[in-house]
Amino acid sequence: MQEDTTDELPNVDELMQRVADAYDSLPRQLKSVASYLEQHRSSVMVDRTSDIAASCGVHPSAVVRFAQRFGFSGFSDLQEVFKQAYAGQNPSGQTYKQRIRKLIDDKPGRLSGGNVAREFVAACRNGLDELEATLDDEQFEAAVSMLQHAENIYVIGVRRSFAVASYIVYALQHTAKRVHLISGFGGMFREQIRSVKKGDVVIAISFEPYGRETQYCLRIAHHHQAQTLVITDSLLSPLARYASAQLYVKEGSAFAFRALTSTICLCQALFVALAYRLELNVEEAKDTGGYDDF
Predict the structure, then answer these.
(1) Which of helix, strand or coil describes residue 181?
(2) pLDDT for 105-133, tens place per residue?
(3) Which residue intervals define the domain HTH rpiR-type in the entry (predicted)?
């Protein structure tokens, strides 16, 4: 059954929200196409149906069926939504990968360490540019407010996200907040998250393929009515369904390695915004003569 459509094209965010709402009911092949579109928003307008199908491991007809599922006559009509949003911009995802591939093809000899480093720096810069362009101010403000009023803050991130989780805990410990790293040392994720309660906030950081331990901690937080701040890479992330507030970040990558630059930058900005908010409260308390009670 196709989604309802109108003569006026939706914008990209509206379309992807519809995809996210319907994601759980999609067949496996269409889920793969949905994930591709979410991860490569800025390059979909120039991607060929066959290339998307190959990347998703599906037949090209599945890409057309996906478009029809959401009310378009074919994939080219769906692409028009992305063309309206990204025309004139440099696609930072697929196009960058094509640039890397071209670099390797054009220079079949061994690259110097400096060349590799500069390509990776360029990938990080692309990721930061996209973060700046796509940052959701409303969700960011909601995240800061949640942390400001949290009784306890629990932070979970596994594997490549563990470094980010550790940094957030380090930074937040410079405030008066009670902060707990869910490290899972000794396999004790369950024991470390079981005391979470209403009034607390759980910060969960996870990117595709999404840590099972992180998902478990979010479910526990949701069950105990704690608020949750999810930092992830897609509306289609399984973490999004448990989010009280959500921040999306898509890292640049080079030579099949994804950076952490944008994620760290987002978390540093979150800490600075929180510290600024808390300090304003201190200053207001000083002005009213109530600092000793703060």
Answers:
(1) strand
(2) 655 566 777 877 887 788 888 888 888 88
(3) 13-89
